[in-house]
Structures are given as C-alpha cells and as structure tokens.
Amino acid sequence: MKQRVLYTLGILFLLALMPLNVSAQMTARKVLDKAAKTVSNPQGITAKFTISSAGIDNMSGTLAVKGKKFQATTPSAIVWFDGKTQWTYVKDNDEVNVSNPSETELQAINPYNFINIYRSGFNYTMTTKGNSYEVHLKATNNKRNVQEMYITINKQTFVPSQVKMRQKKGWTTINISEFKATKLNDAIFRFKASDYPHAEIIDLR
Asked: How far is CA 38 from the centre of its chain?
C-alpha cells in the first residue's frame, strides 16, 4: 500500500512539473520572438558592438541591420552583406574578399543573426537577471556550427544586449549598445567598387 501511494505521488509530481516545463519553453520562445521582432525593424537598425573570443584580440565597431542584410565597420575592416553575398574590405592590404558566408561566419560578425536561426533546431531555457532575460539555446543536432547560445534581452524594450555562442573553436561574446531603429537605404549593404578604385577584389565563392 505504501509503495502504491509513493508511486502515485511520484506520477502526480511528474505531471505537475510537465506544464511548468512547457510553460518555461514557451516563455523563452516568446521572449526570443519579441526580440527578433524588435531587431527586425523593417526600415533598419543601427548599433555599436564589441566582440571577444579566446585567443583573438577584442574587436569593436558599428553595425547596421535590415532584415538579413547588414554592414559592420571596424578599425581594420568593413563587411557588407546583402542577404546572399558578403564583401569584406581589409584596410591594411586594400583588398576585398567576396564570399557566400556560412551560418557561423554570419553569426561571428552580425550579433543579431540569431533572429534567422533560433526558430528551429534548438531547445530553450530562460532565467531572469535583474532587468534582463537570459535565454539559453542548445542545438538539437551536434553537427550544427553553432552548438549553444546565451542571449541577454532587456525586459522592457526586448533589445538584445549580449550574444554568447559556442562553436568548435570555443566561446565568442558579442556585446551590443546604442541600439537605434532608423531608416536605412539598401545600397549601404552592398560593396561599391567605385569607392575603392585601387582595391584588389578576390572572389572566394
């Protein structure tokens, strides 16, 4: 009799936990959806960022994003991405590398690229830290380039302020500040050869 009571209590305990787990999963997804909507301002957004990664010097710069398109400017390089093609201008040697970047490459330079990949292939959990949510994403496929991410999102504005991601080479942390919704012309997301008449163009596609 005692064993039956304990068994029944155990089942009831598990059943009681199930809605909480489902609720937590849905809440994390809802926060990500709101953050994605904020970043996906149809006219565009601008922000400042810093990137730190093991074994690599910190890098900072400015970012402009419109949908999947972005432009990132740092002291050493400028990157344009029009949704398919990426141009990377390296200032020191005056050359432009043209490529069709992978998910990992896009995430490494565009911290808001999570809005294009979080919707499938990840499990979510979430915690609250002060005025922010921290959503933890873990890939369901261990062959995926980005295996894990932590995204910090402001509770009031739903603006993401930090993205930490784990790749094969280790963890990369991207901090974002001075987020601003603004109207951007699509032309700024494409390399304009006439602005760099002496640059060597290297097509890596």
From this structure: 13
